[in-house]
Predict the 3D structure of the following.
Amino acid sequence: MQNGGKINCERLKEARLFRRMTMADLAQIVGINKQAISQFENCKNSPEPMTLRRIADALRFPYSFFVEADPPSTVGNTYFRALYSSKKKDLAAQQVKAKYLAKIHSVLSLKVKFKPLNLPDFGGDKIITIEEVAMRTRQHWDLGDAPIPNMVALLERNGIIVGEFATESREIDAFYQYYEEDDYPTYCVILGTDKRSFYRRQFNCAHELGHILLHERYSDLNEIDKDEFREREDEANAFAAAFLLPAQAFGNDVAAYPNRLGHYVELKKKWNVSIMAMIMRAYALGCLSANQYSYLMRQMSTRGYRQTEPLDDSIEYKHPCALKQSINLLLSKGNMSGEDIMRFFAENKFSVSANVIEELLSLDEGTLSQPSKVENRIIEFPSVHN
């Protein structure tokens, strides 16, 4: 075995969670009792090789995956907006998927030069406001005060890993996870595929960026109460609004007709943000009185805009592309086949099945099953889409 004769207990648990199985589910399929699965996952006992084979088959992971040693790593905070309303099984599955996305990035970075992490550093500053954090992040990324056409591309361009996959739950729309391996920090933003709205995705990306910049990497979110958790969510929302809709430029645009709903429909075309978010931002900036704000909210309800807004289907929502493109680059310019790529993952002690990588990177089924051709070289990663 590659792990000094021991199984990787953590991977046993992760693979089960990845497949959204309970210990009882897995035990029934394998033909052993639930207590045995618990002992395997907690490193209190090791399965016999034939039992491990049955577990691997049930979880649809290669046998070798469970006997590889992981490098030193730490999973930091995972910010789910629906932390208190989602099922633990759903949350756990997404956490594992985000971790595996980060590990895929780590292995691919040995072959492909991705954009380096490029976050502003506020560490030496005195306490600054959320508005200042948003403004200085725009300055750091040379955005000026112009509308942002594609938040997904912006995050990828600055070294943040962005993934998208079905979250299996309507409550889990998007989330962020911090992961560190061999002292290398990784920030993953995961976007659900259930709600296909460009404007919603814009705000979701900015919201998760807010968590990255405003909140600590390590703290037990299960130890904080609902009020403190809600406060952090409100702060991430405030950052998203300030980042997407800079005070002066957006305020000047609103000033012409601040209490006309049709005006916000037109501004939506320019700022790439939902009407609801713009009205709330206008009120926060003092562009609207309380009465005007209430009037616009009633208009949103009366016209059904709280469910579906005008222009929601006018722009196709943007997809992450950096990781998917890296695979396509290796296939087209790296002189590697799908089998070569999977062998490379195995050589670097992450021998997941091809369908796991295809799912997490939104690759066509069978992409990583092409037969072999080998030549090793580093590929320069091109500029991410605009």
Observations:
- Strands lie at 73-80, 112-113, 161-164, 174-181, 184-191, 379-380.
